[in-house]
From TrEMBL:
CDD domains: nit. The keyword S-adenosyl-L-methionine does not apply. Pfam families: CN_hydrolase. One of its GO terms (biological process) is glutamine metabolic process. SUPFAM superfamilies: Carbon-nitrogen hydrolase. The lineage of its organism: Bacteria, Bacillati, Bacillota, Clostridia, Peptostreptococcales. Keywords: Hydrolase. It comes from Aminicella lysinilytica. This is Putative amidohydrolase. Residues 1-246 form the CN hydrolase domain. Belongs to the carbon-nitrogen hydrolase superfamily. NIT1/NIT2 family. GO terms for molecular function: omega-amidase activity.
């Protein structure tokens, strides 16, 4: 399975950002690519005040343009995440995935909002303008079951274990870590989740933008079910191309049976 991850900075103006993504896809992504992935909030500079301003309903103009890219390229398209204006009047950090025919095949509203306050470091409160989702998201593709999460969700191993138990052998994570937690935890967390879930983890990040109030760590990566790094970018814009074999997840699960070795008579993890 051939994957292209687009690491880019959001611009003021969501359609301009999508145009940047489209240009990078046209110029740098080979035609036989099976899956293209964009970062978290790829078309909305990452600030709480921007989320309601940039929000659009499911099926809106951005959604349609993303669906069209999937159809044009005849590939799976993980359209990062966008601020979604919910039918309930709330705003969500939502990831959509489109199939080769442009139809929406998955939707995940970020479950764990990024509310942190690190001494002398990063402060952020997504919950000032966003509402959390409430689902564990997996979906079917011709390559088998995939999982879908958004950035800070990666810090909650229960969510990743549940996706693995629901059959996910690949987990997509549009993301945007920062310059406090990124150097400390980015690679460690994503490789750990790949190792514990025994799945490929595809983390696609925004790149650092000059003058942005939120400084993204970048470092989009692909980690394999053994927890090894297959490939990683630095912090500049770029396209990460990988070619993976999903049967590696079956092989690792057979040889190191973590999913079947759980003691559900001693402890239990449940989706509610
Ligand atoms: N956008 C996010 O959810 C940021 C998550 C992050 O930086 C972290 O350390 O976790």
């Amino acid at each position: 399975m051939k994957i292209a991850q687009i690491q880019m900075s959001p611009l003021e103006g969501r359609f301009q950002s999508l145009e940047v993504a489209r240009q990078m896809i046209n110029e740098q992504v080979p035609q036989d690519t099976d899956l293209i992935a964009l970062p978290e909030m790829f078309a909305c500079p990452y600030q709480v005040k921007n989320f309601p301003q940039y929000a659009e309903t499911e099926g809106g103009e951005m959604w349609q343009l993303c669906s069209a890219i999937a159809k044009e390229r005849h590939c799976y398209f993980s359209a990062g995440s966008v601020p979604e204006a919910g039918e309930d009047g709330k705003v969500y950090n939502t990831a959509y995935v489109f199939g080769r025919d442009g139809s929406q095949i998955a939707k995940h509203r970020k479950v764990h909002l990024f509310d942190i306050n690190i001494k002398d470091g990063q402060h952020f409160r997504e919950s000032e303008t966003l509402t959390a989702g409430d689902s564990v998201t997996t979906f079917e593709t011709e390559f088998g079951t995939f999982g879908l999460a958004v950035c800070y969700d990666v810090r909650f191993p229960e969510l990743f274990r549940l996706m693995a138990l629901k059959g996910a052998r690949l987990i997509l994570v549009p993301a945007s870590f920062n310059m406090t937690t990124g150097p400390a935890h980015w690679e460690l967390t994503f490789r750990s989740q790949a190792m514990f879930s025994q799945a490929f983890v595809i983390a696609t990040a925004t790149s650092q933008a000059d003058g942005a109030s939120y400084r993204s760590y970048g470092h989009s990566l692909c980690a394999d079910p053994w927890g090894q790094m297959i490939a990683e970018l630095e912090d500049a814009p770029g396209v990460l191309l990988t070619d993976i074999d999903l049967s590696r997840a079956d092989e690792v699960r057979r040889q190191l049976p973590l999913l079947t070795g759980r003691r559900t008579d001693v402890y239990r993890l449940e989706e509610v």
